[in-house]
Amino acid sequence: MANETIKYKSFSIIGAARSGVAAAKLLKSKGYKVLLSDINPEEKINKDFLKEIKQNNIPFEFGNHSEKVFENDLIVVSPGVPQSSPVLKKSFELGKEVVSEVELASWFCKGKIISITGTNGKTTTTTLIGELLKDAGLKVFVCGNIGTAFADMVENIGNDGYAVVETSSFQLDNIKTFKPFISILMNITPDHLDRYNHSNKEYIESKFRVIENQTEDDYFIFDFDDEVIMKNLDKRMKVTPVPFSIKKDPGDKFNTAGFLDGNNIMFRRGNKTETIFDSRNLVIKGSHNIFNSLASILTAKILGASNESIAKTLQEFKGVEHRLEFVRELNGIKYYNDSKATNVNSVWYALQGFDTPIILILGGRDKGNDYSEIENEVIKFVKHIIAIGESKEKVINYFKNKLPVDSAGDMEDAIKKASSFASGNDVVLLSPACASFDMFDNYEHRGREFKRIVNGL
User: Fold this and answer.
1) pLDDT tens track for 138-156
2) What domains can you pick out in the chain, each with its CATH number?
3) 234: how many CB neighbours lie within 10 A of its CB?
4) pTM of the predicted model as reported, rounded to 2 decimal places
5) 215-to-100, 160, 180, 183 alpha-carbon distances in Å
6) Spatial contact of 412 and 393, defined as CB atoms under 8 Å apart
7) Residue 406 contacts residue 417 (beta carbons within 8 Å)
């Protein structure tokens, strides 16, 4: 719920991208003193964000973080700024309090928060929950890591509203009182190890922070089949646990659960078990989308959605942009945009979705990838790799003795080469397993460029 007594009067916001600009606008509109600071020079700031900053008369500094940053009461950090950055290191040394933009926005949120985190499946699950709740007649605001910052949306959320917030580990790193009514942990596989000192333990702890302020009146939806989650599940946690599984009913020690029985998605509360949907009728294919659907259905059921409403939404939901998104078919070759696949686990799932040979565009800014985790799937499903970006040498060196690998200078070159190696019913798949910041603004920019070039072929 909204925190009516914010003790801070002045704020330094680090990072002039989507969430930083949203936080600055929110605070400025409330009459607080703000400073927006970004290490990049003005010419490297996104033009749309720059326009918003100037239109809202937000004080800013670009090109460095001056001493002014440390003169304000509280530091609000964007998820793109690592904990190890000099400005945050100095903030911690000076004993300054640092919070994330989702923490800040939660102070102003009058409605209930639904927070979705996990290594993979966050965006699809967040989008699907939004659709399920909207179709059930609830007032829903989908935001966070998915596109619109929480701070940009929060003023619209009344007491009867629900903020459905895709929440990254970077945003959870700097929470203090962030308290979802429903938290969802989809899965945990190694990711962002470049940001977590190559320690999976730190990454796991970040993900589990989503439940730290929850009470038994709140719900924690989690993947019962995920070994890492089950191994780290805190037996002393105060929140009400709600597991989901594609293998079995998690058992009666959990009052509420979702699971797969044959092809049927089931919901159990207490002694009553009901069939919600036949998973074969999902438009979004792949076992990972059954997990995404289970987590989404549990959320909708907890909030009172009817089985009829849920089934109708599931029959119509076509997935999200940049996630195994079909772009076009040309000369029998199908092109798919999976730009959101920024880790090897996402690529593992993507490869399972096809039964025809794949030309795979792989690479970008590496986050500590271990390609042995997808080696078997690549050998089984992929007939040619096109390596791109900063990590292309790593990709080439790992796969060159296992299957044909070529490199490309840019996305256009990659698509041309991929198309030349494709034939018959082959698939050209952009599923990079890497961050996009070596060549693009973000994964959306990368995906849009892929689609633009493919549609121009």
Assistant:
1) 999 999 988 799 999 999 9
2) 10-95 (3.40.50.720), 103-316 (3.40.1190.10), 325-455 (3.90.190.20)
3) 12
4) 0.81
5) 21, 20, 10, 11
6) no
7) yes
